[in-house]
Every structure is written in structure tokens, then in C-alpha cells.
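FAQ: What does a multi-protein file look like?

Like this. Sequence, then C-alpha cells, then the next protein.
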Amino acid sequence: MKGLRQSTIIGLGGGLLLLLGMMIMSPEHFGAFFNLPGLLVVVGGTLLATIVSRPIADVVAVLRLLPELLHDQPAQPSAAEVGQLLRFAEAFRLGNLRAAERELAAIDNAFLFAGLRMIVDGCQLQDLSKSLQWRMSGLRTRENGQAHILRTLAVFAPAFGMLGTLFGLVHMLSGLGDSGLDEIGSSMAFAMITTLYGIVASNMFFKPLAIKLERRTHQRLLHMGMLMEGMLLAYEKRHPTLIRETLEAFELHTAAQPAPQYLSLVRA
């Protein structure tokens, strides 16, 4: 459980406890809340309709991504990443390429590694900036597409919940003449529960996770933007103290910025 987002656990766990509490309030009708065919209609229909609208590989990738949304995503570079960047900048500023190469070999962050690798290889500043911006744009496009798939799932789930209810009502009405009031009531409850499944799946699961993914994307872009600014300063052989102060100022300035605005703070 280490590293899991506390807000996600509280939200999902609290929502499930709320639903369970409402079910327990009617213990004599507890079984009425379970409708396996209706659940299959909601889950299966929602997934199949989403697959029709998007490539199946993208849908599978989003489903595999769901556990990751429970983990923290830092909004700024870690102290280790900043330290690696500053040590590289100092070695590069002094012309000690061997020390810069050693520092580069210890970097795990793929974005930071790629940028510093280009600096060591002697690329042009414009090429470095353009390459880093393309990497950021690619991440934004990919993760925005994944959030859109989650929102698509949220749209389809209530619709298929209603579809399951309609199937149940048709089945109930087809045998209306041979049924008593008790049987009609239980059949109606059995049919209506699929609408509940769709609403719960949409508003307690898919929509919140889509919002969380969009927020995570914003945080990752801020993270990458700060590293990019530091790498551009390192390319210009600025002093590590200036780079550190710039990163701190960048963090404070972007903390309150909405997601679409932050790119204006990154150098062209």
C-alpha cells in the first residue's frame, strides 16, 4: 500500500462503503442488488462499444493503466534528479566531459537522460529544445487520448445500464398475465438494478479516474518542463546555483497555472 494516493483510496473505499451501507439498510432485500446478467451487459457492452470507437490496443492499454492511477506522481523533479542535473551542469560547464558522461550513466529518468545525452553529443540548442518539446507533446497527446477513453467508458456505462433495464422490463411484461404482484415487483427490481450499475460505474469509477489521469498528465508536463528549463541552462553552461534558483522559481510560478498555460513558460 506504500505510495498509494490517500485521496484515491479514501474516495473509492468510502464510495463502496456507502453503497454497502445502503444495501445493508434493507437486509431482507439484500439479494435484489445482485444481477449477474445485468452486470455482464453493463461491463461487456461498455467495453465492446468503446472498442468499436477506439483501437482495441488503446483500450487494453488504458485498462492496464488503471492500477497506476493509484500511485503518486510528483509535480516537480525529485531531489535526486535535480542533483544529477546540477552535477552534470557543473561538469559540462568546466569542460569535464568524462565526469559528465559518468553522471549521465547514473540517470534513470528517460526524459532527462535523452536531453543531457544530446548536450554531450554537441547538438544545436534549437534541436535540443525542439526534441524535448516533441517528447512532451507526445506524452500529452498519448495521455489525453487515454483520458478520453475513460470518459467514453463513462458515457457508455449508463446507456448499457438502461439497456439492461429495458431487456428486463420486456421480459417482465411478456409474462405479465401469468404473474402476481410479488413476482412483478421482484422482476422490476431485478431489471432496474442494471441502471444502478451503469450510473455507479460511470460516476464513481470512470469519470473520477479520467479526471485523475488528466491531473497526472498536467503534473508530468510540469515535471518535464522544469527539467527542460534546467537542461537548456546547462547547455548554455550556466552556473548550477543559477539553475537551481531558476528551477525553484519555475516551480513556484507554475504551481497555480492551469494545464494549457504552462508551455508558455518553457523556452522556445
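And here is the next protein:
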Amino acid sequence: MARRKGGRKVDGWLVVDKPLGVTSTQVVGRVRRLFDAQKVGHGGTLDPLATGVLPVALGEATKTVAYAMDGTKRYRFTLRWGEATTTDDAEGAVIETAERRPGEAEIRAVLPRFTGTISQVPPRFSAVKVEGQRAYDLARADEAVELTPRLVRIDAFELLERPDADHAVFAVTCGKGAYMRALARDLGRALGTVAHVVQLRRVAVGPFTEAGAISLDSLEALGHGPALLERLLPVETALDDIPALALTEAEAQRLRCGQAVSLMARVHRDRLRNLTQGSLVCATAGGRLVAVARYEAGEVHPVRVLNL
């Protein structure tokens, strides 16, 4: 997350269409400079060779980044059969080749094995930490990297087209932490060959979609005026799946002070109709978001207080 002394207090989400060859950190830096913002972060890293939806949080929206990152992701990627690389994408050196090219029926038949909750070993060149160090730093130093398999959720894995015998295009809907490069690598192995990703685009992160994204060039063309601020989405956009709970101003002030709000009285029963024990709520007062809170034992406890 990029922070700076001074600058303006700007709160909200911006959906950037990240271009090829730019890091997520570089996007955050350019957005920070455009808005002259005090605090900026992003809702899920994209590799330099990936394009697409990069939600950027400004100001108080940075407190909701974790909820954005937990949202469902949608990707579209092109895979190349017959070559394995060090990075599992086109950036790496080819380390293995294979003559076999699977047919369309074979591909479709094996895809169900990669849906649901599956075990996946992240790529060696990834941001996963190994004994406190990023895996990609160890890999670049030619050090042995032993990554532990982990469970990820793949909701849908669909073959879209076969442009030619060497390539296939897929659409994936998944949960947090799933690597498309690892999915391509493992799919190749399952089909008796090797493979790597040559093109990757993220089309959605939770409620943020490519339909609402803006390119960096278009964003910079807006300058520093009101048109730039009009591109911001409300802070609560990242909390789209969390039910709202309206509070009185007195109750809201208790949450702002880090205190729990009791809802045990009979008069509050209608307000609790859609809440279950331990559920998160978006606590609001006067139509303004006050905090992300948790409902427990008849009380609402602040989790993240927002200063909007």
C-alpha cells in the first residue's frame, strides 16, 4: 500500500484496466500521483504480463481491501501446448518440450477434475512466502523453492476456443489464491503434455468488472479535475455481499469509539432478521458507512471503523 505525507484525503475505489508490462505497484503509484492521494492500495496483484481488472483503493477504501480480495475472480487465458517454462508463462525460459497436442474432446473431458476444491502448488515465481521470503526472489536467485500444495476453489473452468493446434483459450471463475499459471501447468500434465500461459486477462474481482474499468491512459487524460473524482466508486462497493444494518447516530458513535452496540431488546428483533451468529454487517448511520462490524450474542462489534 502506498502512503505519502500530505496529499488530499480521497476515499473510494477506482477500477483500472491494467496494461501489459506494468506492475500492480506501478499502477498504484500512478493513481496516487493523479489524485494526490494520502493513501492508496490495490485489491489483488496482477503479474506484469497480465492485463485487466485491478481495483485500486484510495483513503478509507484501503480498509476494505481484504473483502475485495476475498471476492470471486474471473479470468480469461490463452494456453500454449508443448512447452513448459520456468515461470509457467511466456516470460520464462523454456525448460521442457513435448510433441503431444490434446484434442478438444480430451480437454473438455479432463476439465471437471480441475473444478471444485482442488489442491494446487503455486508457481515457483509467485508472491507466496517461503520462510519469510517471496518465492520469486528465491527463484530468481536460483535457490531451491519448495512450495506446499494448498486448497483453492475453482467454480468453473471452460474451454472457449482452439485457435490452432498449439493454443487453447479458457475462462475460469475461482476463489482467492488460485493461480492460472498453475492451472495451465497442471492441465498440461493431466493431458500427457506440458503447457504454459501466453496471455492472461482478469475480467472481474468481486463486484469490480472490466465493463467499469478505465485504462491508465484514459485516466491520465482526465487531468486532476472533477472528471477524475467522478470515476471513483463508493467505499462500500467492495462490501457488496455484506448486509447493511442501519444504526442510530448514538449507536454509530459507540462503534466509532470501538464499543459494542447491544441489540438484545425486543424492539430490535426486526433489525436482526437477516443476521446469523458471527455474520459481518455494514453498519450505517444516516446513509453513511460507519464500520464493518460483526454480530455476536446480540451485540454488534466493530471490526473496521471507517472515517467517512
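Q: Is there any per-entry metadata?
A: Some entries carry free-text notes. For the entry above: The CA atoms of residues 116 and 223 lie 45 Å apart.
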